[in-house]
Design goal:
Blueprint: H1 3-12, H2 17-24, E1 28-32, E2 37-39, E3 47-53, E4 56-62, E5 65-72, E6 77-78, H3 81-86, E7 93-96, E8 100-106, H4 107-116, H5 118-144, H6 147-157, H7 161-164, H8 167-174, H9 178-186
Antiparallel strand pairs: 1-8, 2-7, 3-6, 3-8, 4-5, 4-7
Helix pairs in contact: 4-5
Length: 187
């Protein structure tokens, strides 16, 4: 049941099977239905979700307009990071684009794991480093790549995305209008 998550965790620290089995008792398996939320702006995000299956998107509401910032698929960790760390209301929304199976861990239980073992502390550090690199690459791409280059990069990284995601989400993620996305796709 936790095979995918075990692989991720073992890539970050040398966990034994018993250590992971003990820790997995703290996780709750949950289905987030299409359009359901892991994080909602204005509420404190006090849990994180490891996505087992399905697809989610992260977005902000800016002046009444949704701006998609990331797509999260199987193997991703969905969390409104600044809200989770600071325990303040989130600005970020994380919403299921399709029914998604997730494993939920509360902040309190994560803190408990950190106190129990350096391996969990190391895993937290590795995940934060990966999160930072993703955000930095996105920021640089938005500043340095053309709309066409950003589209090509997205299709290379997530080839089946257009089959699952409404085009206006993709356009928002790329920082372009739906009309511009249509022109790029027509080529």
């Amino acid at each position: 049941m936790f095979t995918e998550m075990a692989k991720l965790l073992k890539s970050a620290a040398p966990f034994t099977n018993q250590e992971l089995e003990d820790a997995f008792r703290l996780f709750r398996e949950e289905t987030i239905r299409k359009n359901g939320f892991i994080s909602k702006e204005g509420l404190i995000c006090d849990r994180l979700a490891f996505i087992r299956s399905g697809l989610m998107r992260s977005f902000f509401n800016i002046k009444g307009k949704e701006t998609t910032t990331y797509f999260l698929g199987p193997g991703s960790i969905a969390v409104a990071m600044s809200s989770f760390i600071e325990m303040k209301p989130a600005f970020e929304n994380i919403q299921a684009i399709e029914d998604s199976q997730v494993y939920i861990l509360s902040k309190e239980d994560l803190e408990s794991l950190y106190r129990k073992s350096w391996k969990w502390q190391q895993t937290g550090r590795v995940i934060m480093e990966q999160y930072y690199v993703i955000m930095e690459k996105r920021s640089i791409a938005l500043q340095t790549l053309s709309a066409k280059e950003r589209y090509d990069e997205l299709m290379k990284e997530h080839p089946g995305l257009l089959l699952k995601v409404p085009l206006h989400y993709v356009a928002s993620y790329l920082g372009i209008s739906p009309e511009t996305l249509s022109r790029i796709r027509r080529g």
